[in-house]
UniProtKB/TrEMBL annotation:
Name used for this protein in its record: ABC transmembrane type-1 domain-containing protein
Compartments where located: Membrane
Transmembrane segments: 75-94, 114-142, 187-207, 213-230, 288-321
Membrane topology note: Multi-pass membrane protein
UniProt cross-references to InterPro entries, sorted A to Z: ABC1_TM_dom (IPR011527), ABC1_TM_sf (IPR036640), ABC_transporter_C-like (IPR050173), ABCC_6TM_D2 (IPR044726)
ABC transmembrane type-1 domain segment(s): 75-332
Annotated keywords: ATP-binding, Membrane, Nucleotide-binding, Repeat, Transmembrane, Transmembrane helix, Transport
Coiled coil: none
GO MF annotations, alphabetized: ABC-type transporter activity; ATP binding
Organism: Adineta steineri
Organism ancestry: Eukaryota, Metazoa, Spiralia, Gnathifera, Rotifera
Family label: Belongs to the ABC transporter superfamily. ABCC family. Conjugate transporter (TC 3.A.1.208) subfamily.
A GO CC annotation given for this chain: membrane
Length: 332
């Protein structure tokens, strides 16, 4: 058994009794002895089970639209989710600006409860809108994953029998378990965090540029560098993620087939062989997963370096223009 397929043994009939050249008498066919010897194992070129392949390139926008515009809310749910994200970021930036304005007032005016009530209302609004935004975002994503799951299940129920013959059970199980888990758990959290950090970056750049326009000059070399790193990382991580998914299917296939043929495995005493094959497939999948994880840390390290550089330049400019910038504005 190699690569998840049982290879056929080519059987050749090799005669053990050969006639010598100087012998004129011929023996009867009943006296001829033959042995059936298995030849070297070769791959089955006519197998209906095909190797699993992965697509290349980015995910189409139509797939994302199907995920975000799933029934029952469809486009209204997508627009409402975007509005909640924008309101949350707007209230967050308003609270920071209001705190800066409050700190610029004189001592007698700072003691007025008006500023404290406004700031307290802004902080409370951030909490309420954030809870609504996260809850509604998870709702939209879970409705989209349910819609895609139902389409997948409908396609599996109404497909032909040849689909199950040409695809091992582990491959189907991988699509219906791990890939669906990514849609249900990993993707909503990653999407919400990504949108939150993106809006926070835009809001921070707006506040900093409003305070000191010279800081915006740093963005001229910084933005192309970030976009180039993102493009390089996305192409690599996308293919690594697909490679990790492809190498996971043989693990499920071998695990399920071993359970089905457990009596035969024990009867022929080949438990160690199957255990070694199982460990080899786990090692193959672990290598792909390890490279995927290290690529994420590689990208994160370079982003941290760029953000630290931006913070350093902002701090130096705040010190250089300390006589022209208010202390509260510099704190932002």
């Amino acid at each position: 058994m190699t690569n998840g397929q049982i290879e056929e043994l080519q059987i050749e009939q090799i005669p053990t009794m050969k006639l010598s050249n100087d012998t004129s008498a011929t023996e009867s066919s009943d006296n001829k002895e033959t042995d059936w010897v298995p030849d070297a194992a070769i791959a089955d070129m006519n197998s209906i089970i095909k190797n699993e392949t992965s697509v290349e390139g980015a995910i189409k926008w139509s797939v994302w639209l199907k995920l975000f515009t799933a029934p029952p809310l469809r486009w209204f749910g997508l627009f409402l989710m975007i509005i909640f994200m924008l309101i949350n970021e707007a209230v967050y930036d308003f609270s920071n600006v209001w705190l800066a304005m409050w700190s610029n007032k004189d001592y007698s005016e700072q003691r007025l409860s008006f500023y404290a009530y406004i700031y307290l209302g802004a902080v409370g609004s951030i909490l309420i809108v954030a809870i609504i935004r996260v809850g509604f975002g998870f709702y939209i994503m879970l409705r989209g994953s349910t819609y895609l799951h139902n389409r997948m299940l409908t396609g599996m129920l109404y497909t032909s029998l040849r689909c199950f013959e040409s695809n091992p059970s582990g491959r189907i199980l991988n699509r219906a378990s791990k890939d669906q888990q990514v849609l249900d758990q990993s993707l909503p959290v990653a999407l919400i965090d990504t949108m939150q950090y993106l809006l926070m970056i835009i809001g921070s750049i707006t506040v900093i540029g409003r305070t000191n326009l010279w800081v915006l000059l740093i963005l001229i070399p910084l933005i192309p560098s970030v976009l180039w790193l993102r493009r390089f990382y996305m192409r690599s991580s996308r293919q690594l993620k697909r490679l990790e998914s492809v190498t996971r299917s043989p693990i499920y296939t071998l695990f399920s087939s071993s359970f089905d043929g457990l009596t035969s495995i024990r009867a022929f005493n080949v438990q160690d062989d199957f255990l070694n094959m199982f460990m080899d497939r786990i090692d193959t999948n672990s290598r792909a997963y390890f490279i995927l994880s290290t690529s994420a840390y590689w990208f994160g390290l370079r982003l941290d370096v760029m953000v630290s550089f931006l913070t350093l330049i902002t701090a130096l400019l705040a010190v250089f223009f300390r006589h022209q910038i208010l202390p509260s504005a510099a704190a932002l």
